[in-house]
Amino acid sequence: MLISRQWIESLLAPAPGGARLDDDAFADAITSLGLEVECVTRYGEGLRDVVVAEVKGIEPHPGADKLRLVDVFDGERTIKVVCGAANVPDPGGKIAFARLGAVLPGGFEIGAREIRGVPSEGMICAEEELGIGPDSDGIMILPTDWTPGTPLPEAVPGIEDTVFELGITPNRPDALGHVGVAADLAVKLRRAFVAPSDTLAEVPTDEGLVSLDAPQRCGRYIGRSFEGASVGPSPLWLRVRLHRLALRPINNVVDITNYVLMLWGQPMHAFDRARLAEGRVVVRLAKAGERMTALDDAKLELVAEDLVIADAKQPQALAGVMGGKDSGVEPGATTLLIENAWFQPGFVRSSARRHQLSTDSSYRFERCVDFGARLQGAAATAERLLTELAGATVTGGVDVGGTVPVPPNIVLRAQRVEALLGMRIPDDEITRVLTGLEVALEPSGEGTWSCTPPTHRPDLDCEEDLIEELVRHYGLDRLPSTPSVPSEPPGLRVDPGQREADEQASLEDAVLDAMRAQNLHEVLSFAFTDPSDLEPFGVPADRTVTVTNPLRIQTSTMRTHMMPGLLRAASLNLARHARAVRLCEVGRIYDWPESRPQTSGPTAEVDAKLPREQRRAVFLICGGARQAESYAGSDVATIAASVLGRLGARVQLRPADAASAWLHPGVQARLDVDGSPVGEVGEVHPDLMRQFEFPEGIRAYYGELWLDGLQGGHVARHQTLPRFPSTSRDLSLEIPIRTAASSVVDALVTAEGNAEHTADGPRLSQGDTAGGAIEIVEDYRGKGVPEGHRALLLRLHYRAPERSVTDDEVQALHAAVVEAAVAELKTAAASIRVR
Amino acid sequence: MLRGVSDDVTQALGAEQQRFEAALKEVGDADALYELQVQYIGKKGSVSKLRGQMGKLAPEERKAFGMAFNEVKKAIEAALEERKEAILGAAREADLGRVEDLTMVDTLSAVGSIHPITRTRRELSRVFRKLGFDVVDGPHVEHELYNFDKLNIPADHPARDMQDTFFVDGQSTKNDSNLVLRTHTSPVQIRTMLGREPPIRIVAMGTVFRKDDDATHSPMFHQIEGLCIDKGVTMADLKATLYRFVSAFFGSDLKVRLRPSFFPFVEPGAEFDMECPFCPTNEAGEKLPSCSVCKGSCWIELGGAGMVHPKVLQACDVDPQEYTGWAFGFGIDRMATLLHGVPDLRLLFDGDVRFLEQFPC
Ligand SMILES: [Zn+2]
């Protein structure tokens, strides 16, 4: 929203004392009202040396056919200038003349020049060259009665102006015009607001002009008919004003509607009455399928919810949004029907969205403009200007009403003002501000008022809204910084769910710190991704969560897995440099669960409609393209063990029950803690490496932890240290290559658990020479071992807690354990044997 | 005859000693030395064996032989000890001659990093916990009821346009699922008010989404919001809390200012700015106008704030006549870029390790 300083000033009485604020202070005052000034632009500086001048004579240029020598009188002397325009008026005509030293927009300074051998001391200007209009077709022709020598900014005051760009929040429809901003500012600056004094002329009521068939959708319609209009260019002052506010001058009638829009903030529409069937309008709902061509040539197919302004036959405007092409005012029109109306905001918004038309008009109607005094004021200003500038005569009018909002009655209490703000605002300031804002105020007791807001402030709906008005004008900068006393000490109570939230947060922190300690770099990937990235993970379409209106395909599907994010980042790194890449991330994945646990509580009903969100911690490592460093699957397994260890969890690596398709089939394992799966590790499947455009020959390793299944806050319990040495026995087993070592270990542990023991005899136990009770000493493949097999050399450690053990008793236990375990293993793979 | 035995034994002792001394000269390491020790003075060593001959001697000869034997044994032990020291000394010298150049170690790859946004989130948590706030979060996919309706942003109101929203298809219905990617962390305020009794002091922190993508907007970003509901809570308290927060966060006394603005869920609403902590100062400690962060204004716009709208309180079954409350919110990503001087938001989401490793702590 662009605001002209000059225009605002014309709506304010002079400041007490007459001091003029500079533009920055003026901008600060506007911003302090919540109408944020986003940009300040000064125009017309340097145009003081552009003056009204009279053409005294024209001669051909001796050296160029298209140039002419023009004698101009600038009020002081006659000067010869070279001019290339074709439309130089005959002697006596007036033009805009830039004297030597004038600085045109863009910093172009006029100096004495020679053009094809003829000296030229100044320049005859076009609108566009002066930055006061869009016209660059020939020079400006000024009215002949203007006095030569008058500086142009004096002849057209709008040339020198400061324009403020305001960011108007959606609650302030009243500030979408100069009148509203000026009225607000008047209260702030303690200057009187001078409203435009236009009134509607007394004319015969013409009931037939407007039929209001949809009063619930149109709250008010002022229709006025005009005759004898002459459509043509607007005067320079109007063109300049619109140009300063970034509106393109079109013709006087259209320009007047735009001028009124910018002055009052009230949209209006002009119909060429001659082009309306029966010369009248009907405000009605559209018939489904009815068609209309909008002013911008858009072909609309209307639905029954659209409100239209129709003539006796067909729609001529989409109410509050855009006029129709067939009834627009073009040169040659002489009879007009001028609409100033109020339409129900929500429906204007739906129509505009439905037809994808966003206009200055719909923007304001959606926000609920005034249906009262400002609507009428807008109609009156339009009427005066049509009379003055287009020579039109108003011949009749009608003002019909439908359903409009009823301004509320609000009780305002001085004590509540203080209770909410923590600052007292004096009673006389309360009455001054609210009265200034046209709130009707009735004292209704000590420090209490009964208030009715004006119709142009639909946002004022409750006591707090009025308190905001007070603090805006009294000054938010006067608010003290005073802590309130809490009614109970913070942290006294542990709220339901907070303990769990804190545990989750510290679990994530711990995992992240542990991953960082493994020299991993934390990345943040987008939670949505390209659906093709998720294809390898085989989540059915009805389980994925889809964005209805994505920015592009890459933001269309909520990730069901974290791996693509890391693959993208790693691939990008390898494309940019040749270093090793070690990444990690903590994030959420999303899906529609097949079933979900029953929950209760105040949000359960809503939560049941939401997708499932699960937390994951993931990591990925790969060697750089030109780096000797290369990783193996064991590296990610070690990282997983270390990160889980940070949580006090002892991880076990096990073959997956069903292989994950996104990992290499031969290089992957499940992570178990206390017998439950909590994640997986492995090598990224070569197909994915290709899909994510990794350089040839690079391998990446990946691991993920399912945080929702993990518990933080583990409290470790002490166990007595062994006092007697351990004894070991070696076992060499020949097993198929695909049989996991962990299966062998598990079978041995189970067999030992089932074996017969004496009460104080030896048990399989963590050895003095190794980390575990069963140590894998060697994994041999090659000579002496059959094809498809490997020889696993295991070392089993035994000890008794309270005494030394003898070789015989260890040997007996060991033999029993091996025999039972091998028998068990043979049921899965018959070729297993002891070497 | 007896005399002969004595002479033989003494002679043998002397011979063994000479043999030992000759062998000792050949010994080069600790293992060989130990072997030598075993060979001569071990349990079954050649010298030790001679002591067994003592029984064959006449009682009067035994004393003399015993003394001779002990002398020889001591001499051998001393020679062994001396040689051991020499060998260890030589080994130590050799060991000290070893060179490993530790200056060649790649230290860069040995350090992991925490993302600047996470680091900022942790720091915010720390400060707000200290100020007595619980830290909470909620679902990323939200229902419009919590993301808009209960926050006084009705359907078909232009206030919804303030945030470009990503909508989400329902599980079975494509349209009218009323699901969105949350556009702010405010639905967590609603969830908290529905689930807890006042007094409430929370900050909600997390990922949010808006349909926006350019140099200054990312479609996914992070937000923090504070909410305080209690009896007698005022806007002056809001200002005091914001002041305490920015001062604690930046570790210096920084002013806070409020400017009127509009957010549908607060009334009165405001934007809040903080005094710029980055302005360079001259020797006298005065701020210089050359600051690139605040562009010389000395203020940094942080976010929005205000008193919780009575309609929001009512929507969460809190009586606005009994309780008042305030809320504020701002972007974590911007805070992170300010703190770390990151010029472009997109760097945050690229995952380039050369960027990430700049934030090792
Ligand atoms: Zn600064």
Helix content of chain A: 25-40%
Helix content of chain B: 40-55%
Residue fraction in strands of chain A: 25-35%
Mean pLDDT level of chain B: 90
- What is the H/E order of chain B? HHHHHEEHEEHEEHEEEHEHHH
The number of distinct helices of chain B, counting runs of at least 4 residues, comes to 12
Sequence stretches where pLDDT stays below 50 over 5 or more residues of chain B: none
User: What oligomeric state is this?
Assistant: heterodimer
Largest sheet of chain A: 7 strands, mixed
Walk me through this protein's architecture.
- The complex is a heterodimer of chains A (835) and B (361).
- Helices cover 26% and strands 27% of the residues of chain A.
- Chain A has 835 residues and is α+β, with helices and mostly antiparallel strands.
- The radius of gyration of chain A is 42 Å and the shape is elongated.
- The mean pLDDT of chain A is 93.
- In chain B, 41% of the residues lie in helices and 18% in strands.
- Chain B is rod-shaped.
- Chain B has two domains: 5-96; 116-134 and 197-356, BirA Bifunctional Protein, domain 2, CATH 3.30.930.10.
- With 361 residues, chain B is an alpha+beta fold.
- In chain B, α5 packs across α10.
- Chains A and B meet through α8, α11, α13, α14 and β28 of A and α5, β1, β2, β3 and α7 of B.
- The structure holds zinc ion (ZN).
- Residues 276, 278-279, 291, 293-294, 298 of chain B line the site of zinc ion.
